[in-house]
Fold these 3 entries.
Entry 1:
Amino acid sequence: MADVSSHNAIWQMLDRVRANSPISGSEFGVALAALLFLRWADFEEAEREAIAAFDDVDYEPVLPARFHWRSWCNIHDPRELQYIFRELPSALDRFSNSRHDAMATQLHRVAPAVEKLTRFPADALAHLIHWLADQPFETPKDRRVLRDALDNVLEKKFERYSGQFHTPVQVAALMVQLAQPKFGESVYDPCFGSAGFLTAALESVESRDHVRLGNTRYASGKQPLHLAGIEINQDAYVIGLTRLVL
């Protein structure tokens, strides 16, 4: 788990948000997940751009450049950031019929959670964005540290997800141990909630194959598992999706 003591800014932001607006701890958790997803989407898009440049082919970004994380994460004027976030949900919502691009589809589904960020006080939103911009993100380990920080927020402040949408870690681990998924297989969860079972299955295969085979099987670019799931609750979907991409 991440050393959450190094992420005190999260708790400071939560206190600041709740002192100046009706944002609840639960809403804060969903909004934080949405912000993490936006950073991941920009990271993924940058990789696509780099691959296209290497192959000397044109690349059309999914999001307009002004809405890329890298375009606004270092803006110092809180009012300017707030203005961008007033426009961003509508920009994401336009992807409602973009079934040809998985990222566009997921960005559309994250739009309601991004809208929660528009209700944050301007200075709290700016501090939270700048905190996240300062965190390492380039390696899988970096991203899992942030996922653990998100999990800590959800565990302490997201009471709604303690039962209906959250599988206890021990239960997920037992289910994975019984199912014993193998490299290249598919795992499906018909009500994945915060994706506890899917992430446990993925980590189990990665860990087992890394010990057995080193990194050789991942050099081909193949995914360890094919993951699929359904979740009817909008907030849970955003949290589960974010945890998976991290």
Entry 2:
Amino acid sequence: MERVRRVASHGGYNYISITEGNLALSAEKKTVFSFDSLHPVESLETEPIQEEKEETPKFYWKQTEEDLEIWFYVLPDTVKAHVNINVSEQIIDVKISGLDLIKGEFHNKVEKDSWTWTMDHGKIGVMMSKLTPGMWTSFWADKAGPSGQEITDMTEDTILPHLTTENPICTGDPTREPAFNAEELESVDDTMDETSNFIWQSDAGKQSVTSLHGNQHLMSISLRNGCPPALCIRSDVDGLVLKVEDNLLEHVCTFPALGYVQAGKQNRKFMTAPHDFSYSAICDDSRHIYIYRQPKPIESELKNRKTGVKVAGIANQQVVTLENREEILGMQATPNLLFIVTQHAIYRISIK
């Protein structure tokens, strides 16, 4: 071994391979060379990668000319007996089970005898009336309390919704009406938070970067002739297969609706496809394997009744159920065979 180098990242890796002159990576965060055995004295970029993190608010607040509302979240099993709230003209003091949660001095005075508080599904709200009408420029007097976020018509309550109610996602509106119901969301729609990049890291430390923002990593597909594995990412509902070359991603194939289908498989464990991209396969933790073949042309004309669009091909799918219930440990695909490995058996499924 002539040389050892180390690449570091504060996120995970979805794909790793070697092209002709680069280390090719699909990484969630920035990557840097943190060590080089041939140049130990050189100043490498070893400092921690600084990620800008917004401070999580301890509470949220909303105001009108006359009224003030503050709310915050506790564990759902918290009962009213654990909560102790005191409000005076200038100070609010909130304790949960004897521990200080929120304490500070108001920006202006409130009416000390007209405040109330409520508690519902882990959300505690305190309603107060201002002693002197008018809009406050801040909640605390000269940073005299923990960080909070003001909720206006242009912002929203960003706390995790499952800590507040079972279904609705609240916006901080005093009416407590939900903006929409969480049951109406589908997991297949939740891909816009994918922030990975595809990075080519050269020997000299230079990088070429392609953003994969919004494109979920689905799988890597082994190719022949010593080529780097192909990368399959989600684009809308489909799965796009990208061939990895030096400083280049080339689209070579599409798996129709694969992105949508895999998102609905909550128990999925592995995904794979053969080097000719003739089908894709998804397996559960145990027993079930789902095979999705590429669409094939049809002889007779077929139209969509609603849109009138002609259907050029039909894609077949197949479900395979294994005899035993052992955990599936691996899956590998060839154009004609699909291999499944469990603890005590290897299954060979013929693809015809």
Entry 3:
Amino acid sequence: MGVAMADEVGIPSARAIESALPAVEKAVEIWRGLAAARPVAFLADFATALSNQSGCLSAVGRREDAVTAVEKAVEIRRGLAAARPEAFLPDLATALNNESGCLSDLGRREDALTVIEEAVEIRRGLAAARPQAFLPDLAIALGNRSLMLGGLGRREDALTAIEEAVEIWRGLAAARPDAFLPDLATALSSRSAMLGGLGRGEDALAAIEEAVSLALPALERARDVVADAGMKVVQTYLRRCEEAKGDPNPDLIERIRRVLVTAGLVADEHE
């Protein structure tokens, strides 16, 4: 489960982003001028443009510049949220989430953790007030917090964070499986990694087996984006079995084989 900086499908190549960057930077300057003249009307749009610029800069490897842009976006969002929290706190949490990812890319892990923890607390408050709207965002932030903690060697804390995320996704998936089962599978895969890092091999295998069981229906439906995520979970499962020197569940392996045969990725050995 990576740092959630965007949810776009079909992410363009770095070369395409670099070609588009001058236009993105021109847009930032236009919004900067508008926001200077009419801040009440245009500051939020300026912050959005800065966030877009940061994402583009990060994608082409200009990480210091990406941090500078996203930090300015956070500063603007913080001011807007102070004035109108009901309108702008969600945007501040998203900007903090993005800032954390940029800081992590620079190797500033302690700073990244501090920032994502602020995002988690904002999203926790939002989810308490409006769970239907904001629980998914809280689960995403908890997953990112887990990654930051794991990168700092705080494995027990990382496990606690991902386990909370798993429970949130489990509740959401129970109500809306089509929307949230893939997220639950991904979170379980991350939980398995954390458990494995703590030497809890059997628990790690149980978590990844559940993740594969949840991911396989999406693979069987062959919905491209979800299927790609599901295949990564399957690959993680097979790797985890190898690391644990254990045999994969034969029923799961047969289901995986059938999916791959249907997709034309492997030949049907039974023909």
